[in-house]
Amino acid sequence: MQDYEKLGVFYLGREYDLTANQPKDDLVLYDSKDLTTHALCVGMTGSGKTGLCLALLEEAAIDGIPAIIIDPKGDLGNLLLTFPELRPEDFAPYIDPTEATRAGCTPQQHAQKVAAEWKQGLADWGQPPERIARLREAADVAIYTPGSSAGLPLTVLRSFSAPPQSTRDNPEAFRETISAASASLLGLLGIEADPLRSREQILLSSILERTWSEGKDLDLPGL
């Protein structure tokens, strides 16, 4: 197979022969420089949209390109499932016991089968264990879960902690921090506020400015 690592492009797979109904040897390589603004992935259910997006994100990570992913369906958390050694015990925690029973085997046996299938499948597409290790080493993947403790929880309350002294000493940065915090809270309340004329925005900004100027933190009850 062609050594695509030296080409500085994203490896997305191989071309497909629709007549022969099988993949060709020609690689599908995408120049990452073309992804400068927006991209849209369109296709019917089951056509491989998620798989394509995962491939793009993995290739970007290998090249040191960071990504912020908004994932309402929870599909892209699979980016964390990178097992360079492809051992059965790596897959075992994610095996569905019911699926193993339907296959007529124990969860451990099913994990061995799944690991072997993944190892062979990745090898068929030119993805050696060393490349999986490169992905794991290149990417620090974290899942943030607002309103849930399933991942790394997020909270808006930290927005009301007093900014550092360096920010408070910079009038422009201080105003921007106050405006952003006020607008964020009003946005959560469903209030579209004009920062210059909204009574709510002006009130919140005044409270934050006075309190933060004294180096004091605020919380929702305090507000």
Summarize the structure.
By secondary structure, this protein is mainly alpha-helical. It has helices at 49-62, 88-91, 97-102, 107-124, 129-138, 165-168, 171-188, 199-213; strands at 10-17, 22-30. A hairpin with a 4-residue loop joins strand 1 and strand 2 (22-30).
Q: Could you explain the architecture of this structure?
A:
The longest helix has 18 residues, at 107-124. The chain has three domains: 1-70, no CATH class; 81-154, no CATH class; 157-213, no CATH class. Helix 1 (49-62) packs across helix 5 (129-138) and helix 7 (171-188) packs across helix 8 (199-213). It is 40% helix and 8% strand. It has helices spanning 49-62, 88-91, 97-102, 107-124, 129-138, 165-168, 171-188, 199-213, and strands spanning 10-17, 22-30. By secondary structure, it is mainly alpha-helical. It has a two-stranded antiparallel sheet.
Total count of domains? 3
Residue runs with pLDDT of under 50 for 5 or more positions: none
Assembly of the depicted chains:
single chain
Class from helix and strand fractions: mainly alpha
The helix tally amounts to 8
Order of helices and strands: EEHHHHHHHH
* Mean of pLDDT: 88
Give the strand tally.
Answer: 2
Cα-to-Cα separation, first versus last residue: 63 Å
* Biggest sheet details: 2 strands, antiparallel
Proportion of residues in β-strands: 5-15%
What labels would you give this structure?
mainly alpha, 223 residues, 40% helix, 8% strand
Topology (SSEs and partners):
Elements: E1 10-17, E2 22-30, H1 49-62, H2 88-91, H3 97-102, H4 107-124, H5 129-138, H6 165-168, H7 171-188, H8 199-213
Helix pairs in contact: 1-5, 7-8
